[in-house]
Amino acid sequence: MFEITSIDELGCKISLWGSGGRDARLSFTCASLDVTADRDAISAFCDTLRFRLGADLELSIERDRDKVDVSGMVRLPIVFRSRRKDHILAFVRDTYRETLQPLIRTRTSSYLGRLIWDGAQSGWTTSVTIHGEQVPVTIETWSDKDITPIVDGAEELIKNWDSWYPRITDAMTQDLHGIYNDNWRTDGRPKLDSVQFLERLAISSISCDESGWRSVYFTQDELFTDHIIDVRISPDNELQAVLAG
């Protein structure tokens, strides 16, 4: 049994599931779709799906006005047979961007305030003020799980920033300061002491995911060319600073 679920920036939930072999079912749940007005668009989408996936695909669509609930959500189950399940979700997401009207999805956190869904980042986004600067915060999620524990983790980090920040700078100094001086420093540039090293770094964003990991990202003034610094905080609150990007 397998299941893949994606929620894109248009507020469309796309699920692909099946029991193995060639049988699978692709289910759409989306908002802002008028069944009557978009009948031609839906038919065109199905024709395009057949064309893009080729003769390997057998597809049928079930549509009924009873599937439109009071909130205006429309459910379009599409049953298909294909060996090419690996890229169908990406294709469907691209098609949605062209055929459905955008939908802004928001939710509210008591501490973080208004969270806005960003499908490009697969997460809920907001911003907070740290060191006098606006810092983007992303609550990453790739399933239908309750995001409350992820939000709680983000809130704990930001509420206790004055306690976390010394640990974060210690991790960057321990894990990356020596690496810069020994391996990344170009000829002619003097070595940096730990204070000078940290002065070149600036927080750029924060992300928290549903596995319990939190990341605090820093720009590094080209010390490590085009990389960014990712200070990773494990579910057990262990810290490690690594280069990313």
TrEMBL record:
Residues 111-240 form the DUF2262 domain. Pfam families: DUF2262. InterPro entries: DUF2262. It comes from the Bacteria. This is DUF2262 domain-containing protein. It comes from Novipirellula herctigrandis. The lineage of its organism: Bacteria, Pseudomonadati, Planctomycetota, Planctomycetia, Pirellulales.
